[in-house]
Amino acid sequence: MKATFPHFGYDTYALKTFVEDLGAEVVLGPPASKRTVELGVEHSPELICMPFKITLGNLIEAMEQGADTLLMAAGARKCRFGYYHYLQEQALARLGMRYKLVPVAQYSPYAFVFQLIPSVFHVSPVRVVRAIAIMLEKSLLTQEFRVLLNRKRAVDFREAERLKKPALEMVEQARSVKAIRRARRGLDRMFSCNGSAAPGHNGRKPGLAVGLVGEIYMMIEQFANQEIEKELGRLGVEVLFERSLHHHLLHLLRLDRSYFRSQRLARRYLRECPGGEAMRTVGESIHFVERKKVDGLVHIFPFTCMPENIALEALQQLSEDSGVPVLSLSFDEHTSRTGLLTRLEAFVDLLKRKKRVQGSSRN
Amino acid sequence: MRVGIPRALLYYRYGKFWERYLTELGAEVVVTRKTDKVLLQKGLEYVSSEVCLPVKILAGHIADLKGRVEAVFLPRVVWLEDHLYACPKMIGIVDIARMMLGKDVKLIAPVIKGGFVLPYLAAGLSITPNPFPVVRAFSRASRELNTRTAVPEYEPGEKRVALIGHFYNLGDDYIGRSITSTFTSNGYRVCLKDELPEAVLRSRKGFARNIRWVYERELYNAFRYLADKVDGVCVVVSMGCGPDSLVAEFMREEACRRNIPFLQLVLDEHTGVAGLVTRIEAFVELAERRKAVPQAS
User: Fold this and answer.
1) How far apart are the C-alpha atoms of B6 and B62, rounded to whole Å?
2) Is the pLDDT score of A200 beyond 50?
3) Which residues of B touch A87 (CB under 8 A)?
4) Is A78 in the B-facing interface, judged by CB distances under 8 Å?
5) Domain of A200?
6) What is the pTM assigned to this prediction?
7) Per-residue pLDDT tens over the stretch B43-59
């Protein structure tokens, strides 16, 4: 069995380890590129949202490399995401390739451990639980990697980009719980006390902090959001985020405290969950603004995303109430990089100016 | 108490019931005027440009009520029986309405999850504290609820087209009038999903059971029911409508397979009537030509 799944940012490594732990061979397509998007767009309905197009392109490219079992996440019902696999199946059937598409329903841990995964991979539930434990550990590693990388970028962009490759290799190689823990310590050393590059070295601290909130795929898949974290880092901004595979997995196991907190906080603006991740987006934003004292919020979502458009209105209100600027960016395959960079630069300029004015008025 | 009802979205389904209910409760009911360009423009100021046309229109109607009424009645359908959800925007628009209206205007928003009797009664109590008139008003008003059980009759030899679209799009004259009238003036009888009984619309048979949005399931079932009774299918979708972008695709796929003429019209606030009419006329001609040469495919 040659299993594949769509790329998922740095968390691809965590998912890959999971599938390999289940005894399957993983054939990943190339990382998403312009061709991926073109392939995806060609076989997608015109009005569908962007994650559909990229994931479909990923699957097609992986099939070209010989994958035969496609794992596609499924689940939530109020959001379009829960229906992706029906349409992807239709599209792939039209292409006439030989494949098996497995919709991985996420929202019932019991069915996942005892029925779905054992029936696909022919393994015992015990092994599934073990694989999940390792995936949890590894997704924590990738999350930490992102945090460290973002912090480093804000201080010393060049050094951070230089360290990225060896660090990612370290992340990829770690396969057992022990190795993952060792890698985590290694990353800590690499990004912080390794010689001179501690956060705040040269007396420079990251000047600005921005909270990144939005739809999970856009947050994690760096190709989809056009490496927004990197671009903000280049401008000297530390990007804080909370949405990650690790938190999502904990949420599926009903163990994620940040999720409950977000739900509680978001009630201030949204009394009823509109589906998708709107509540989390709003809750996280309030958390970032009030507890983490960020200078601004960047809200990213796919074009015409339904829940996030509701969240957008709530964020506008939050911005009005708290005085923290919000930049809402919707992405689709036509989003131009130059336009994005201009908007980010203008936003960061605004934040800098605001901070300066506030600083001088306080003195 | 002056209570306002925006004439948009769910009004086109439950509006008569709401009006009657509030009137029976002794409230002075203000329904906004029919949608026009001014209302739409007003709505555009309040919501993001990416939401769908009916939500923009609803925002306009709510903005229009601001300052004219003491309370706004805007029920929130989260899910109906069998955990069939409304779309995220329909659920969320109530919160947007609350932010739009501010603190001065009371928002009466019964939350409907499954049964609708209790939420409506609770909402009634917030208008008059006495439960007896509330129950009486509710039972009187519920006669206005649509309980169609009979299937409309389709005469042989008649030219028919199935117009598949949401009631809040086709029911709103500002959006749907030109589409319906173009078909009628070309001699077609327009078959709408709202003429069909609920038993057909909410049926769980076939692929429909995978669709968990209540109004989308109705669309899909109506399509399945009407597909072999009509000469062509026209699907009306508003730009930015998430559920429709999927379900229309399922319908297109099936129409292709069954060789039924299929037209998808995507509407937003920039859609011109002339463009719609041209497309519909072209579609009608195509459907007729195909009928004249039945095995031409």
Assistant:
1) 6
2) no
3) 246, 249-250
4) yes
5) 125-206
6) 0.91
7) 999 998 889 999 999 99
